[in-house]
Amino acid sequence: MRTQTFSKNIKLLRKRRKRTQDDVAHALEMKRSTLSGYENNVAHPGIEALIAFSKYYNIAIDTLVKVDLSELTERELSQVERGYDVYLKGSKLRVLATTVNQDNEENIELVNEKAKAGYKSGFADPEYIKILPTFQLPFLSKQKKYRTFQISGDSMLPIPDGAYVTGEFVQDWSAIKSRQAYIILTIEDGIVFKVVENLLQQKQTLKLHSLNPLYDPYEITANDIKEVWKFVNFISTNMPEPNEEKEQLLHTVNEMKKDIKAIQMKLEL
Which of 3, 53, 79, 123 has its CA at 20 to 30 Å from residue 39's CA atom? Predict the structure, then answer.
């Protein structure tokens, strides 16, 4: 473990929060001398201590021990401290570019159809993100980060072509849940909206499924993924297409009920 990096990081984070060693030691339920030993690189933390520091600062253990936070820009470090640390083993630290309103609350940036091509290359550029339209949805949590993307095509029917889907930023890809919908930014295909099967632990891939059965599922590698957003809602001016199979089933059931009723009437006679 890179204990020198870890020591520098926990000291830097404590001072940025304007906490004393006594404050942090009390919060982590450890002796101040133990904390001092960690900060001065004369003691090496065990896994329980690493977990405690990770939870306290809301920063991944990998980041605390492998990334020298003092080398980040102020904007990048601020993003990490606010929970947008998406360090994935085998890759370098990626920090989400985002914007806030005049009250310092996170905006929901809108990536419409015209902006999708630019977003593929400009997603990590704060200057590009800054020019995207922004809005607020008051029923969403102010403690989480959201972004809205316009989708195209019919692969996710009954969610119609041209709908705006809003996603919650996923910082830990291991938390991606199978059989749930996600908006994923890929190197190869740009923005895709699919139901996901998480195979990262077994194969370092995600298997993507469409709601429309005409489209076959396919896999993408972790190296092809740039961002992941968990689907939370969609907005559309179009009515969803009717479910033809369900309508046909209901029609068949109603016809059967009529036949049964007719048989019952004949038996009563």
Answer: 79
75-84 average pLDDT score:
71
Burial-class residue 191 by CB neighbours within 10 Å (0-12, 13-18, 19+).
buried
Strand, helix or coil for residue 130: helix
Rounded Cα distance between 171 and 30, Å, is 28
Residue 139, phi then psi, degrees to nearest 5: -85, -5
Q: What is the pLDDT of residues 240-264, one digit of tens each?
A: 666 555 556 566 667 777 777 777 7
CATH fold group of domain 3-81: 434 Repressor (Amino-terminal Domain) (1.10.260)
Q: Do the beta carbons of residue 160 and residue 135 sit within 8 Å?
A: no
- DSSP-assigned letter for residue 115: G
- Residue 151, pLDDT above cutoff 90: yes
Residue with tokens 């396919």: 218
